[in-house]
Amino acid sequence: MRSLVLIVEDEVDAADVLALMFEHWGYDTVIGNDGFEGYHLAISMLPDLVLADYAMPGLNGAELAKKACREHGHRINSVHIDERQVRIHQRAGRSFCGTQKAI
Question: CA torsion, points 36, 64, 42, 56, in degrees to nearest 10?
Fold first, then answer.
């Protein structure tokens, strides 16, 4: 069984390119086009990895992971695309849930 990567990105072209890359590397992918859609996909599909844009309409990537953990007990292993925004989030003392890495 192949690992599942959830890509949450509000720019459709960027999401499509990321999906093609991960599929080429042997992963199954699913795309969410905003934070709320990504959240619902994350709790229903339990992907192995969430690759989320940080700055999105609705929920940002960190809020998506935190909401899934707080409300459903799912720990989300996520990578956020905007490192600058993640650093601001961390400096403000906001906590993450699950494994978080910025790129």
Answer: 50
Which three-class secondary structure state does DSSP give residue 65?
Answer: helix
The residues near 21 (Cβ < 8 Å, ≥ 6 apart) are none
Within 35-77, strands assigned E span 49-52
What is the architecture, at CATH level 2, of domain 4-102? 3-Layer(aba) Sandwich (3.40)
CA angle 14, 22, 51 (to 5 degrees): 60
What does the DSSP 8-state code read for residue 56? -
All residues at 6 or more sequence positions from 77 whose CB lies less than 8 Å from its CB, including other chains: 48, 49, 50, 98, 99
pTM: 0.77
12 CB neighbour count, 10 Å cutoff: 10
Each residue's pLDDT tens digit, 10-21: 999 999 999 999
How do residues 16-62 score in pLDDT, each as one tens digit? Answer: 999 999 999 999 999 999 999 999 998 899 888 888 888 888 888 87
